[in-house]
Design a protein that fits this description.
The chain contains 6 helices and no strands. The chain is mainly α. The protein starts with 5 loop residues before the first helix and ends in a 14-residue tail after the last helix.
């Protein structure tokens, strides 16, 4: 029997639960790799990534890849909050695409950070006052 590709497994998951796009699932997997490759995101040397570490990686990778459009990109994928990222993570766990740590809970993703604040605040242009040109 031939192995089923990651893309095919994600596509199957999306067909069964249409809340999020395949890009959203792939992005979460990419963010996990990002956290593993960037020691500044990690508080431990353990291979297991905490919810806090993953949320920081999701935020930082989003800003790096999409800049001020990150929130719009995520919303186009059906992701409106950190709780949605938690839903995606646990769908990946349920479908044997990720492993769950002993203390991992979906609720830990709720209210991780505010999307507007995390993805827009740093990109607002500063307007110069008239007459100071």
């Amino acid at each position: 029997m031939a192995a089923i590709s990651l893309e095919a497994r994600i596509d199957d998951l999306v067909q069964r639960d249409r809340r999020y796009t395949a890009e959203a699932y792939q992005y979460v997997l990419d963010a996990l790799d990002y956290v593993l490759q960037h020691p500044s995101c990690r508080s431990t040397v353990s291979r297991h990534i905490t919810v806090t570490e993953l949320l920081e990686g999701l935020r930082r990778l989003g800003l790096e890849q999409f800049g001020p459009l990150a929130r719009c990109v995520f919303e186009s994928w059906g992701v409106y909050s950190t709780g949605d990222f938690g839903e995606i993570v646990f769908k990946l766990i349920e479908n044997d695409l990720l492993n769950q740590g002993d203390h991992d809970k979906k609720e830990d993703f709720q209210n991780g950070f505010d999307f507007r604040e995390a993805f827009e605040e740093g990109y607002r242009p500063v307007l110069r006052a008239r007459g100071n040109d």
